[in-house]
């Protein structure tokens, strides 16, 4: 295992080194939070792909393939669809707004101040996303060194917090590019072909499994597919961690086409993970926990050195999502909740404190799927309608938006209590209640003031003057 250790160590040291280098570039708030809004096509598409394809997409995607066959691709496929829709429909307008948070967009569109409500929901979502990604580190460190969960979480979490605090979005962008390359090589060019070859190709897998359902795209269940589409497609349309990457694009064109490229990459990644998991079922049919399929295959199929690179790829997937969620959480806390003028130093302190909190919660928490589901249900049920409505419907009002946020979030919470956290009903009923409330209350209240809409139109068209852009900076 010495060569595997060397590969992992080189990767980790490289991440810390890039954090240090990024610190030299992050000299202003804009540089620290959104990389100066000047990423080109290559860096933008790479970093977007890295942030959305985390540990759940890699280890979880292989696990779903192990259990459900090719149908296990639906979760990551939904993530890819979300990025495609966001990039094709809304990315140009989002870039032109020149804000730092989703809540600031709501304030610009509707007038007044709604950021405490929307910011609190977004903060909880980004914190839980950081926590769940941080917990996943323990899987890799357990395979490599036999370390217990707590030690693995602390080591992995500390590395991410260190380079995130040092250079902010510049460090995260640089590390994401490396992470994107590493996991593309490790997952698509090494583990996928090796696992398919070991299982005898598609024909060999079919012969070993003798189960046609494993190649049925609907095997995972229609209700599950619909839930994946609702939660992940809609969640990616409005998540602060995703919007913050859109803010880094140097132009609307980069945000659109770089994002579409990233979305297509996610679709390929989805099918690859499901095929790897299906091959794993054929090779190792008795794995008790589907989420152990990835580690089992890496340990059993790959030679030393290559094994280290593929484990580094999984670690890269986790770190990219975790760091992106952490900087998003700190940005929301500083701009929407703290609401005082901040500089680079104070934003670093927010990132450090929240990173330590995330590590502490990750050590204490076990049911990460339930925790993340709660966050997604409240995020989508509470904020989706107000955000998308503001982008596409001029008649939507601030009171309608606020009412829809409250009704949607409370409905999601109520049905999670009634039917259970993992039930489908919370997302269905909360979206329905939020939409009806938004339309009804907006139509029953005075339209948004003309001067607010005029300022909004200037921002969306990219014609706002410097003073207007600084209002939400």
Automatic annotation (TrEMBL):
PROSITE patterns: NA_SOLUT_SYMP_3 (PS50283). Coiled coil: none annotated. GO terms for cellular component: plasma membrane. It is found in: Membrane. It comes from the Bacteria. The chain crosses the membrane at residues 6-23, 44-66, 72-95, 116-145, 151-173, 180-200, 220-242, 254-276, 309-334, 346-365, 371-393, 400-421. InterPro entries: Na/Glc_symporter_sf (IPR038377), Na/solute_symporter (IPR001734), Sodium:Solute_Symporter (IPR050277). GO terms for molecular function: transmembrane transporter activity. Gene3D superfamilies: Sodium/glucose cotransporter. Keywords: Membrane, Transmembrane, Transmembrane helix, Transport. Its main location: membrane. It is a multi-pass membrane protein. Belongs to the sodium:solute symporter (SSF) (TC 2.A.21) family. This is SSS family solute:Na+ symporter. It comes from Lentzea atacamensis. The lineage of its organism: Bacteria, Bacillati, Actinomycetota, Actinomycetes, Pseudonocardiales.
